[in-house]
Amino acid sequence: MNKLVKLFTIFISAITLTLASISSSFAKVEGEYIVLGSAISLTGKYSSNGVHTQNGYNMAVERINKMGGVTVGGKSYKFEIIYYDDESNPKRAAQLAERLIKQDGVHYMLGPYSSGLTKAIAPVTEKYKIPMVEANGASRSLFTKGYKYLFAVLSPANQYLEVAIDLAVEKNGGKPVKIAQAFEQDAFSQDVRLGILDAAKRTGSEIIIDDKLPKELNDMAATLAKVKAVKPDVLVVSGHTKGALTAIRQISEMKVDVPMLAMTHCDAAKLSKQHGKKSEYALCASQWHKNLSYKDKFFGSGKKYDKDFKKEFGYAPPYQSAESSAALLVFKDAFERANSFDRDKVRDALKTTEMQTFYGNIKFGPGGQNVAKPMILFQVRCKGDVCENKVVAPTKWASDKFYHPIPKWSERS
Amino acid sequence: MDFLIFKAPMLMVQASLDGILLGILFALIAYGMALQWGVMNIINIAQGDLVILGGYIAYTMYLAGIHPAWGVIVSPIIMYFVGWALYKLVINKVVDRDLFISILATFGIAIVFQQLMNFIFGADVVVAQSEYGTTMLFDNSVTLPNSKIFSAFISVLYAIALVVYMKKSRLGRAIRATAQNARAAKILGVDTEKVYAATFGINAALCGIAGALISITLTLHPYVGLPYTVRSFMIVIVAGLGNLPAVAISGMGLGLFEEFADYILGTEFRIGAVFMLLVFILVYRRFKLSKKREYLK
Asked: Taking CB atoms and an 8 Å cutoff, what residues of chain B touch A44?
């Protein structure tokens, strides 16, 4: 009996070893394919944004492959991505990153969705010296850890709403403003908060309400009652889609009058669709908008991207998809400039990226964040019952005039 | 700034009303939990997820163009059968086992429900619009969303109906008998199996009502069920089993406590304060009990 067990163990270990050696011979480049890996949230609480991210990646892979692929050493290669579902769980994401690198032999990674999951994966890619271009982790703390292999095509979280404070001050005749703010207690929202604190300091503005919303909270009546009592010049709310939807619901129900309301995640929350006219005049931070005039040869303009994406996937691309597509353009550019599949050469090439994509200019700062692209603000404006997001800041890209102050609820129909 | 609430008396009124209206809604969920805890000795971790499922039923109606308030009638009917089926499939296997097994089983149900809802309805946060408007009091300084008033009203209505049903109807009496002593009830001819299934169904129906109300007052998301489970658990712990007035008062008290904690301690300590209160109450109860305890020496 004992012998049998021993034999069995040997047999199993032999199989495992063979499998392991086979899978490690899976190289970063197989035949004509450059294999990228990504753990992505296809199920769990981030699944909708995870799918947006995946669609963005797939769209770019298909486009680049169709248009000649990546030329390295005079030979043309195609992109291929191995996906694993991380179930929106950071621990799982880190395991899968390890698996992609060690078992599947992936040498280049694409980021997951959300700051939290990117934070979980970054130490792994760093440990194995795997260059990762990520498109959906904006938390500032990702860029202060000294990571050498992490590159983000998006602007860091602290920049999301800084512009809004500048705008409020400008509308106030250059004088400091009174700010009320409510942020969820998570890495991303707290980074947005830090940005506001910086902006307040810079402009001499005063923060009169500074509430931190717990993760479980779906009722912010108390915060809004305070806002009503102290009458700030601007109200800033950031708590992902739940925060945006709760804020608009309760601001409209409690008839809270503020001259300016700035938020994040409006388009992810489909604010203008779900709340309609109640969400009018809300000012929202966004990484990208289709009307911006950036261009590249793969997707043309933002508007063209919007059209092609709609044709392919049947819905308008949120910025999460656009930035994900941009990540692949960055990889292609880096491979071609490195003209090699050596990881460190590719990393060095990534480091010196300076390019324009339909999504915006991309140039990486010392921490790996994109420093070449400003955040934009759009405002929800309604015509009849149809509401749309109009870009209002920064002035260079604005398609519409910023409506300020927000009319009082008693004057709104 | 810290004690803004004491400077502005209107805020006090606002906070109290907000707290009470929300508390009544929580009390309804807690009553369902108390009922099936009392009758079947099961702590239902999936309580909050049943609530959210009920909410999604109302939301689906809203998407189909029906006013979501009708959800308070449709949702409990569907949820009754969901609860009943759940009993037949899972709960009847754990009903007379120890508490730990049933907690594990309902925890499993909670996860399955979350994933199912995520699969069917997507991971987006959604809201249904009631368009009920707002009631303004004291020269517009206190605002009460009519949807919250509506939800408190409906909760009270259903709670009263349930109490009457429990007192008067045959099934109600059977449920109460089973709660008192399941074995004796069985000997006297009560079909306890049927009673258990009905109790679990009624609990799910109550969750359905609460969910429909939440879809028009708060927000829905497949993964926000747990806070409702925790809150109702807390209300039941404070109020005790099978005591509706106590559940109502404890629910409102919890709502009030949360709102005031928000103003005085800050929003970030709101949930923390509630848990501190729970610990305090549990310690206090133990202390009180230990005074009465007699030892055989």
From this structure: 118, 123
